[in-house]
Amino acid sequence: MNAEVKALAKASSFTPPPLRTVKAANRLTRFYFNPQFQGLDHVDPLKPALYVCNHTLYGMLDGPLLYEKMYEEKGIVLRALGDHFHFKIPLWGKMLKRGGSVAGTRENCAQLMEQGEHILVYPGGGREVAKRRGEKHKLTWKTRTGFAHMAMKYQYPIIPVAALGADDALDIVVDAYDVMQNPLGRWLLKHDKNDILRGGDMIMPLCKGIGPTILPRPEKFYFSFGKPIDSSAFLGMENDKEMQWQLRYKTMQAIEAELSKLREVRKRDKDNSLIRRLLTQR
């Protein structure tokens, strides 16, 4: 059995972990980041959808909390399409697989859609995770339109999801630009025969959180689900590149609008303890 067939088999033969296990695993981060959610009324467990979300710095802090909330409140076990690099990280990769994540290929996405799964995708992929200075809350999707193609083909509604907070929990000290301007960095890129660094896109930043440490500041996390975007108007147009870009642009606008709403929610949120306020000061 080749690797592609094995991947498809795993995508279709998934048994969700018990909710209590998910909640136990998230207990510390849930307490630490105190996540807030809005717009869950736009989520219908009986209508499978493609949840398109912005990726935050490192891509590891807020995703599990989003997964837990959907599981607990809606009974939905999100099947996430992840960048291949996630599955190469010890422990983290195994945890993702146990939660139902699969490599973000069109074949895996098609398999999940044919099964009627609720699917989470981050079009920014690894590049949006490896943020650089000035890219806080920025959507960095390059030329990707694959999610739009799949939504059109399988007539999946798109639910825009915005995540705010994780990008504020850490400050970037050294980013990819710094590395690529360094002689050692240029040498590494030149000799990256397997394209692991993807031309610099996968050079992760060096960050600091509380004081000089790498411990993230306990910023409150905020999530917002926007109104579903109907893909029926694009029926039969999945191979039309212009239509893909139209749906992509519509989705980006919706996510950016939800991010703007969350910034206002955060400004008005006075429910912060003294300790949290002290630890989140820069």
Q: What is the domain total for the residues? A: 1
In terms of structural class, how would the helical and strand content be classed?
A: alpha/beta
Strand order of the largest sheet: 1-9-6-2-5-3-4
By DSSP, the count of extended strands is 9
Instruction: Please describe the biggest sheet, giving its number of strands, its sense, and whether it closes into a barrel.
Output: 7 strands, mixed
Order of helices and strands: HHEEHEHEHEHHEEHHEEHH
Gyration radius, rounded:
19 Å
**Which regions contain 5 or more consecutive residues with pLDDT less than 50?**
none
Helical residues, percent: 40-55%
Distance between the termini: 53 Å
Keywords: Acyltransferase, Transferase
Protein name: Acyltransferase
GO molecular function: acyltransferase activity
Pfam family, one: Acyltransferase
Short structural summary:
This protein is of the alpha/beta class and 282 residues long. It has 11 helices and 9 strands.
Provide structural commentary.
Residues 49-166 form the Phospholipid/glycerol acyltransferase domain. This is Acyltransferase. It holds the Pfam family Acyltransferase. The structure is a single chain. This protein has 282 residues and is of the alpha/beta class. The protein has one domain. 41% of the residues lie in helices and 12% in strands. The strands form two sheets. A seven-stranded mixed beta sheet has the order 1-9-6-2-5-3-4, sandwiched between helices. α1 (3-12) packs parallel to α5 and α5 (106-114) runs parallel beside α7 (146-154). The longest helix is centred in the C-terminal third of the chain and has 28 residues, at 241-268. The protein is globular. The termini are far apart. The mean pLDDT is 93.
